[in-house]
Amino acid sequence: MRLSVGAFLLSLVTGPAVAGDFTLQWPLDCRLGETCHIQQYVDHLPGPATQDYRCQGLSYSGHKGTDIALPYLSDMQAGVTVRAAASGVVQGTRNTMPDAYSTQDNAEMLQGRECGNGVVLRHADGWETQYCHMKQGSVLVQKGQQVEAGTDLGEVGLSGKTQFPHLHLSLRRNGTVVDPFAPEGRQSCDTPADPAAPSLWAEPLPYQPGGFLGAGFSTQVPEFQTIKSGEAARTRLTTKSPALVFWAYAFGGQMGDRVRLTISGPKGVFSVHEITLERDQAQFFRASGKRLRNAAWDYGRYTALAVLLRDDEEIDRIEEVIDLR
User: Contact 202/24 with Cβ under 8 angstroms?
Assistant: First the structure.
């Protein structure tokens, strides 16, 4: 079967979807807001403009699904199970594509196979769910197999056209894409968000407009790929380290957002740095710190705090602590 985000997903949400008794279970073995996050939602605007169901920017032009992402590549390598969001019959699978970041070099190879490894399930009343970017060799089901909601389908991967490990979950009814967070269409942008608005999720899911995925200390400003792999979080420092750098890794950044980085040591605050984002960034990191000027850093506990601010409102914060010996 040919699984393709571009060709298989037929259209954007064009009108209300009458759900009836159809509901979705959470499809990953992860805790939303702790060990995974929603990176992107369905795009509700035609043309080049972008808007998710909450009138925010967690989407991109023409995006037709919900991207549930893992913070680090190491999380994917450890294994995170993908589960059927609803009972149905397996319509098709793919299981042989390698887990690799999409680049210009492999763009031609990925044409028509942007979904990577995945599963399509057919449900009653014209509903379909599609699970993309799964780990090579992890798919556990076969075409024609009947599965129940919660059945293990495989694992989150990095196959197909993707820049981060995640599950792209698409929902369709009679070939039309439906946003499970807003099956009746996006909420009005002129009124406050209604937490009781209709949803197809069996359990309510919170909306997070952006936030931190991780943070850590390093002896230098780390490469972004090192952070995304999970390697930077394992860096060890001592009182003899040549520098003390605090980094914070986040998602959903918007132009004008501010990241405030503060480091305190045994003798109090010694570094405060505030950085303004110059453009929207789906994932990003910022770092700040100081070089070692004396023979050694003071012995003891160091605490770092990152705060993400949007229009002077705190979106999220994360704290990291290290003991130098």
Answer: yes
Question: What is the C-alpha separation between 13 and 168, in angstroms, rounded?
Answer: 17
Domains identified in the chain and CATH numbers: 5-177 (2.70.70.10), 211-324 (2.60.40)
Q: pTM higher than 0.85, yes or no?
A: yes
Instruction: Report the SS3 class of residue 133.
Output: strand
Please list, residue by residue across 27-56, b when 16 or more beta carbons sit within 10 angstroms of its beta carbon and e when fewer do: bbebeeeeebbbbbbbbbeeeeebbbbbeb
State the Cα–Cα distance between residues 281 and 162, nearest whole angstrom: 15
Q: Dump the DSSP string for 265-302.
A: ETTEEEEEEEEE-SS-EEEEEEEEEEE--SSSPPSEEE
| Helix, strand, coil tally for the chain in percent (to 5) | 10, 40, 55
Are the CB atoms for 168 and 132 separated by under 8 Å? yes
Q: Tell me: the pLDDT tens digits for 95-111?
A: 999 999 998 888 888 99
Rounded to whole angstroms, the Cα distance separating 322 from 313 reads: 28
The secondary structure of 223-262 as a DSSP string is PHHHHHHT-GGG----TT-SEEEEEEEEEEE-TT-EEEEE
Those residues whose C-beta lies under 8 Å from the C-beta of residue 264, and which sit 6 or more positions away, are 270, 302, 303, 304, 305
Q: Which helix (H) or strand (E) is 109 found in, with range? A: helix 107-110
Residues 42 and 68 sit within 8 Å (Cβ to Cβ)? no
Per-residue pLDDT reduced to its tens digit, 139-160: 999 999 999 999 999 999 999 9
End-to-end CA distance of the chain: 57
Backbone angles phi, psi at 311, to 5 degrees: 55, 45
